[in-house]
Structure to design on (122 residues):
């Protein structure tokens, strides 16, 4: 999968013992990062922190450190107005889905792929 390939590439580029900074990050990107003030992986030979994780996933590390996002981080007290605004749509959608499933649970369980046998088909 593309996610696995991205993780493998990042691990090989930044965490393998035979890596070199020039090999991991092309020079034009280093120049761009320095010009714009971006944070970069340490190019002095020190491995990034995520390389020592039990499951070294670069994407979750980037989300945590650089973007300050992650699992359940959106849920704060200051977000209550947003949840209240979304509540009518959530309730209506839940009610509609429940009503649809309750009307014919066997059809929903089969995902509509199998036809019902009718008496006149025999």
């Amino acid at each position: 999968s593309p996610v696995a390939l991205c993780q493998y590439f990042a691990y090989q580029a930044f965490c393998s013992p035979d890596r070199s900074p020039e090999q991991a990050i092309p020079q034009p990107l280093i120049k761009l990062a320095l010009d714009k003030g971006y944070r970069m992986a340490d190019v002095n030979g020190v491995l990034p922190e995520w390389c020592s994780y039990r499951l070294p996933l670069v994407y979750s590390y980037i989300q945590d450190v650089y973007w300050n996002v992650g699992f359940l981080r959106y849920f704060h007290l200051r977000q209550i107005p947003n949840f209240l605004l979304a509540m009518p749509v959530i309730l209506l959608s839940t009610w509609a889905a429940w009503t649809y499933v309750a009307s014919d649970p066997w059809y929903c369980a089969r995902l509509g792929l199998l036809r019902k046998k009718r008496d006149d088909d025999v």
The first helix runs from residue 2 to 14. Residues 33 and 92 are 47 Å apart (CA to CA). The radius of gyration is 25 Å. The helical segments are 2-14, 21-24, 27-36, 58-67, 80-103, 105-109.
